[in-house]
């Protein structure tokens, strides 16, 4: 008498199937998390780039109306400058006092213009921006800045201080002056300025190095940008010395 054949898996076959399924699941798991990590890194890197670009765009706008630099401290990783405030200031208020007498053009002159003082500094991996509206006694040596009444300025120039960049591992700033030089190929002589003669700077070179390290198992979000920012007023003074289009730092006009 014959019995029916028994069909099924042997223990060895079951172990092999389990191993194959485990490997397949492992690869699928790896691809899933690898793709998710790539997406996370891409989004985070894009955010770092966007934050830095917004910072640079605002700084470029402020520098577009830069009258002159106040202080460039490479060692302290900070710099400040004065920008024109776009408000109506009649020329006679600059040239004449309340009694109608011409203001002095010497080093003790009280001639002043409305400006906004911008200060940028780096500490604890953060870049802080400070904005102060006021008056600049531009003919004095050294120039003097006096904080103004906020009600005399539009809200875009209101006094404030806030962190504008985070995760910044390095923030380098170097100022350079320029002067006409017929012997140079470019026609200009460019020299690095010190903290003491920062007001002579025509432009700065700024390096912003961002490094965001979330955990040892994740890729860093890193961005390193070097940019030049020019003072248009100083550049006009270099290109047209002793003309009214410049800063009139000599008080000849």
Short summary of the structure?
By secondary structure, this protein is of the alpha+beta class. It contains three helices and ten strands; from the N terminus they run αββαββββββββα.
Q: Could you walk me through the main structural features you see in this protein, from its secondary elements to its overall organization?
A:
By secondary structure, the chain is of the alpha+beta class. The protein has one domain. Helix content is 26%, strand content 34%. It contains three helices and ten strands; from the N terminus they run αββαββββββββα. The protein has helices spanning 11-64, 91-95, 232-239; strands at 66-73, 78-84, 113-123, 126-137, 144-147, 160-166, 168-180, 188-192, 203-212, 221-230. The strands form two sheets. Strands 1, 2, 3, 4, 5 and 6 form a six-stranded antiparallel sheet that branches. Strand 1 (66-73) and strand 2 form a beta hairpin. The longest helix has 54 residues, at 11-64. 19% of the residues are buried.
What keyword list fits this structure?
six-stranded antiparallel sheet, 34% strand, alpha+beta, 3 helices, elongated, four-stranded antiparallel sheet, 10 strands, 253 residues
